[in-house]
Design goal:
The chain has 23 helices and 23 strands. The protein is of the alpha+beta class and about 650 residues long. The two termini are about 55 Å apart. About 30% of the residues are buried. It holds the Pfam family RNA_lig_T4_1.
């Protein structure tokens, strides 16, 4: 493997692997007994066309020797769908609309050229947590793409369930070594763990462990599907493992069109509207084990807004739900629009739901005003003969009455035995609607202005200059009463929130999007903690929204010669106001670094001199409100920052 070759080169390491390819890593919590590391690409930052990136999809290696311990399938991509920046109008008999999806910047086109479309099968794309089950030194274990299943399922207290505990629970309480008695230690078993406790988008009424495939660990060769079927059947003979299954398989496809049609048919077999939209889709698999993902477009929209946050709630993503499901409220006896109802389960915070609702309502109002005009025009045009309509549509003032007038043309010119309704055309033309109503610069600015009005009034792009001789009134100067410390018994850091509750280290399961707030009380920017970020969160979240940052990996700063460890808290947790002042110091440092071509270490050296402390004690994350105000005033007085 290229990943092994890279790490075995002189001067290369896990650190340089991250620097070059943005590969995330996590070591086994018991490194003494199990010197293992799991490697996984970053969805955003990793270069997608690199073989190393595609190999690191939960790849497990032995530390230092870099021996392969577990590997799954090489990364594969979504089936590419065409996209038009000037979308055509689609009639009732046209293929279903897929073009409102975001253009995939992955190398899926190149991958699809390798795929044999003349002979392939479809397997249901199960929607859960991808696991590798493997044996190391006689011990069977499981790993996600991010760690060795020590993650908690959700934010909360330390007594909550880990992914490993959930796996054992679904396996009827049977421990891994007991399951491993029927397995081959030279193989890696690729699994998908699906349940209501680790729900992604698709809903599972009963928990399932899907056996996706089995890989020869050293060679990477997959066992045949028949072999995997037999192994799964053997495991299921144990009553405790009744929840082990294989994905459903459909054979004999010879074109993408056939597969798309089957996807539509498969989705429509689910009676419940919400269940249809949550179905993820299929894996296309040819005879050479080349794979492509064929996904339900509505699943992708829900997934995007769940994991990338309310900031993704733009017309491009919301309009499909407005045109398809504004009547969902009536059919489901719900007082909320469909997408609001779905995402309310994932957005824990009140402000997140408010942001989503404001955006949805804006899109709905704009479209409904346009539809009123369109219906009025259609009422007139539907009674016209061909010649009258020709004269009517050439009148320049007509198009000014509705930006969606081209839909009227489709209705008039339709040759279907059953003419499409306006409602049907709207549902089939989400991309056209977005292009006409929301894509122009003035339209985009109007959307931004409308949704941003839900924040405080306008603010400059920088923090305000604090008032001179500001009196600090916050208890303990804005710092948590107890400093973080390492519990030697558990080898875990104990971190207390400013509110007094314990904080728990979490790997974020979705992007955490928050407003950047000034000490004047106004919001002026967005800050996003990306999915996968290690972050301390209060155990009373979402009641308390305070968080505290952690080191993302083991690292040493050369000018300090102090070793920091992955998961170690950065400084001392603080109040919201103290954190705002800390962020203002970082803003000032960024301004100076850009203006004077400084390094960050030069800024810290200045701060250390002003505070008369060692450089290691000049980290902003240690500062109280009073210290922050002192440092800010020093920067402003000496460097004229905001002029």
């Amino acid at each position: 493997m290229q990943t092994q070759q890279f790490l075995q080169q002189k001067g290369q390491s896990i650190t340089t692997l991250h620097e070059k390819y943005k590969i995330r890593s996590s070591t086994h919590p018991d490194q003494t007994s199990f010197p293992l590391i799991v490697l996984n690409y970053d969805n955003i930052q990793s270069p997608r066309d690199e073989q190393i990136v595609n190999e690191c999809r939960g790849l497990v290696l032995e530390l230092n020797s870099w021996k392969i311990v577990a590997r799954g399938m090489t990364r594969f991509f979504n089936q590419h769908h065409s996209y038009s920046s000037s979308p055509n109008i689609r009639g009732l008999n046209d293929d279903r609309e897929l073009v409102f999806l975001e253009q995939d910047q992955s190398p899926s086109l190149e991958k699809s050229k390798l795929f044999d479309y003349s002979n392939f099968s479809l397997e249901t794309k199960e929607d859960g947590t991808f696991l590798l089950m493997f044996c190391y030194e006689g011990e069977w274990m499981i790993a996600t793409r991010h760690n060795f299943c020590e993650d908690y399922l959700a934010i909360g207290s330390e007594t909550q369930k880990t992914y490993r505990e959930l796996f054992v629970e679904i396996c009827g309480g049977v421990e891994l070594n007991e399951i491993g008695k029927d397995l081959d230690p030279s193989l890696t078993y690729c699994l998908e763990m699906c349940s209501s406790q680790n729900e992604i988008v698709q809903i599972y009424q009963n928990p399932v462990i899907y056996l996706l495939t089995i890989v020869e660990t050293q060679s990477g060769k997959e066992l045949s599907r028949d072999q995997v079927d037999k192994i799964c059947l053997k495991l299921r003979k144990r009553a405790e493992l009744k929840n082990w299954k294989r994905p459903k398989r459909f054979e004999n496809f010879s074109s993408l069109e056939q597969a798309l049609k089957h996807l539509d048919t498969f989705i429509s077999t689910h009676e419940n509207v919400e269940a249809r939209l949550r179905i993820e889709g299929f894996i296309m698999r040819d005879t050479n084990n080349q794979r492509l993902k064929l996904k339900n477009p509505f699943y992708l929209l829900i997934h995007k807004m769940k994991y990338r946050g309310w900031i993704q709630a733009t017309p491009k993503f919301l309009i499909p739900f407005v045109v398809h499901f504004e009547d969902y409220k009536k059919s489901s006896n719900s007082d909320k629009p469909f997408i609001i109802s779905v995402l309310s389960k994932y957005y824990e915070c009140e402000y997140e739901m408010k942001e989503l609702e404001v955006r949805y309502q804006y899109c709905k109002n704009i479209l409904q005003k346009e539809i009123v005009q369109l219906e009025s025009l259609w009422s007139t045009c539907s009674k016209m003969n061909e010649q009258e309509f020709e004269t009517f549509q050439n009148d320049p003032s007509v198009k000014n009455r509705s930006r969606l007038f081209d839909l009227i043309k489709v209705l008039k010119n339709s040759t279907c035995s059953e003419k499409p309704t306006l409602s049907q055309l709207l549902k089939n033309n989400s991309t056209y609607i977005v292009a006409q109503l929301f894509s122009g610069q003035s339209q985009q600015e109007a959307f931004e202005s409308a949704v941003l009005s839900s924040r405080a009034s306008k603010h400059s792009e920088n923090y305000c200059q604090p008032a001179k001789k500001l009196k600090v009134t916050e208890p303990n100067n804005g710092l948590a009463k107890t400093k973080p410390f390492l519990d030697k018994k558990t080898n875990q850091y104990k971190v207390q929130c400013y509110c007094g509750k314990a904080m728990v280290l979490k790997r974020l399961k979705r992007d955490l999007v928050q407003y950047r707030k000034c000490h004047c009380g106004k919001c002026f920017d967005i800050h996003t903690y990306k999915v996968g970020t290690l972050l301390y969160q209060c155990t009373s979240y979402p009641k308390c929204l305070l968080n505290h940052e952690a080191h993302q990996r083991d690292e040493m700063f050369s000018d300090e010669k102090i070793q920091y460890y992955k998961g170690q808290p950065l400084g001392i947790p603080s109040s919201e106001l103290c954190k705002i002042y800390r962020l203002q110091i970082h803003e000032i440092m960024s301004i100076l670094m850009k203006k004077n071509n400084w390094k960050k270490s030069q800024c810290y050296q200045l701060i250390a001199e002003w505070l008369k402390v060692e450089k290691s004690q000049a980290h902003v994350a240690l500062f109280s409100i009073e210290t922050c105000l002192f440092v800010i005033s020093k920067f402003i007085d000496n460097y004229n920052i905001y002029n």
